[in-house]
Amino acid sequence: MVDDDPVVRESCRRVLEEEGHQVRLCTSASEALAELGRQVCQLLLVDVIMPEFDGLYLIANARREHPGLPILVMSGYPTPETIAGGRLLGAAHFIAKPFTPVELSAAVARAVSGREEA
Fold this sequence. Notes:
Layout: H1 6-18, H2 29-38, E1 44-47, H3 55-65, E2 71-75, H4 80-89, E3 93-96, H5 101-113
Parallel strand pairs: 1-2, 2-3
Helix pairs in contact: 2-3
C-alpha cells in the first residue's frame, strides 16, 4: 500500500488487516519499488499524486518487473485522464478518494480475484 498521507495509510492498513490481509506500508514510489524487489505481493494499492515520483511512474515500473501483479489505483482526482493513464500502464482497478471501508474492501476483493471493474 503506497500513499504519502499517513492518515490514508493507517486507515487502509486497519481495514485490510481486520480482513486478514498482510499489509506493507510505503510512503513513496521508490520505497514501494524496493519493497516489491524484496517481497512477493498479491496486490499493489497505489495513490496517484505523490511527491518525487507519482503513482503512474510506480505502476509503469512495477508492471515491468511484475507483469501479473494486480494494481488498484486510488485517487482524489479520478479524472478520465488519470484513469486512462493508469489503464494504459496496466492498472485495471480504481477507487476514488475518499472511500469507505466497505468500498475499499470491495475494490481489493475485485482486484485480487481478477474481476473487472463494475
